[in-house]
Amino acid sequence: MQDFDRSIREIAADYFHDIELDQPAWTAARRITPSEKIVANKKQWGDKPKDEAEILGPPVATYRYLDVNGNVIAAVTRYEPKTFRPWCFREIDGEMKWMIGSPPVRPIYHLPEVSKSDVVVLVEGEGKADALATFGVVTTSLMGGANAVAKTDWTPLQGKTVVVWPDNDAPGRNFCTDATAALLSIGCKVFVVQIPADKPEKWDCANCIREGGDAGALVAAAVEVAGNNNDDGSQGAAGTSGANANASSDDAAGAGGTSRSGQQSGHQQQHGRASGSKPDPDLERHELLVSAWRQRELPPRDYLLDGVLCTTSRWLVIGETGVGKTLFGLELGFAVAAAANFLIWKGVRPARVMYLDGEMPAETLKERVESAASVYGEVELYAYNRDVIGDGAMPPLNGSAGQQWLWREIEAVKPDLIIFDAIMSLLVGPLSEEETWLPMTPLIRQISSQRIGQVWLHHTGHDTSKGFGTKTMQWQLDTVLMLTKNDGDRSLTLEFSKARLRRPETEGLFKPQTIRRDAPGWTSEPGNVKPKESASERKRAWFQQVYNNLALDVTPSPGHTAAPVRKVAITAIRGEMIKRGFLATEDGKLPARERVAFQRAREELLRSGQFATDGTAFWRVK
């Protein structure tokens, strides 16, 4: 209180010059007055707040740090554009309060799983740790990434085998060096994943999974660090005695280790090798020759619906909310199960179908099942609904628990086709982030390897011409089908934008159709595809729409002509377009093509004469 009183008196003395300070001369000679301090700080920091450093975009993911008992002790929230903020409990006035900031000593990620495992894979970043964990591997990362080695409590890893997977850049290599030293100092056996020589700068485990690479093989082939002390005095790679040895039977199934009948997958049977075993390089090259391909015996396609859907098909059905995706998907499943015709496609054989509903209440699903059964009869279709089986019984499929649950159900039901309704409700996390979809890429391939067809139902965003979220969602899918509402009636246009089964002799099966759901079920007639709005036209319309929405909350101020206008920061328009899915991000960043599209949309609006800008703000003049 005494210091506060003196500060007030100093400020008054400095500004009004009518107060004498009763302080010793030697103190006054050394003390900097408040105004002098303000002037000094202004020279160093400026006199305006750095707004751009404080504004955070929408939160897109939260990574929770737990203690060994599963209690939350800290968290990291990721915002878009890519920014991170740590949170933890701190003692304030004798009470523990949840506050922004990192704890003095930072915990490691996935601590409950780490505490029970002898082998752990260390990566840079929580999202990568979550993605790699879906392969049945115990993973961890640091709170703060590569810069947090000296601030982390490493003791939970003491004496364990740790495989370090660094990013392929200078910070990643420095992280690997520092982390290895810290791990060796507490008695760990350390292995380092060797980045393939052909990989680009910044390549990491997330890129490996996204590209369809064999992440497990890279972990298994990690090279042991000099200084490890093995019991037998040897040094070697972290092979089956490493991370793979800790996968449960459920994890192994989830990683493509066993088929529905408990046998090896078709690929493994074909080549007579177990997954993860080191191939003979000469034999592999020989098998890639054209002559080998021409002689290779592969099982014929097992079609479920005419020539468009088979047991290795991977469909993505996209439509805006309310278009009728569920009715379409459910009755498609009924028709396949009943070997019945559907639209212009002919039924082939009776099949067993799993339908995973992640969004409807039980009574709505019951009504739709009864409606489909009135057309196709009672068929062998298993309809899963969280209201019936319990909300916790069908965990998010992009997590290890959800994938283990799915493989258990596949083993029990042995389906020919699985229909997923819908992606947004069966996964957890923002679909605008690739890390949300990343764990699904290996799962989709593994389901195909068991010769099970897949139909994924998906929503559009504000752009109703494409599915919401990252474009990488379509990379592992062989068929993309759009359902679009037609004006003036209840019909839809069905159009294939991607169809790998399309051949000259089957071209007619993939032509656009006009479809509608009437009393006897879905009907079809040849469709006329409307001219599509160009991408630049859509971007321009979205730019203007976002400006109009944001301008409503802006107080008018003088424009170039001194007339009052509503100025909106260009950065705010860009941020809102990203938030609403009008601009697509990749790895949390805006790619060059989207930056160019944003700039072009702005320039086209300026050329219209209806808008003006000063380089930082944008406003309407007409």
Question: What's the short story on this structure?
Answer:
By secondary structure, the protein is an alpha/beta fold. The chain is 34% helix and 20% strand. The strands form six sheets. A nine-stranded mixed beta sheet has the order 14-13-15-16-12-17-18-19-20, sandwiched between helices. It has a five-stranded mixed beta sheet with strand order 6-5-7-8-9, with helices on both faces. The protein has a four-stranded antiparallel beta sheet with strand order 1-2-3-4, with no helix packed on it.
Keywords:
single chain; 622 residues; alpha/beta; Dna Topoisomerase Vi A Subunit, Chain: A, domain 2; 5 domains; nine-stranded mixed β-sheet; 23 helices; 25 strands
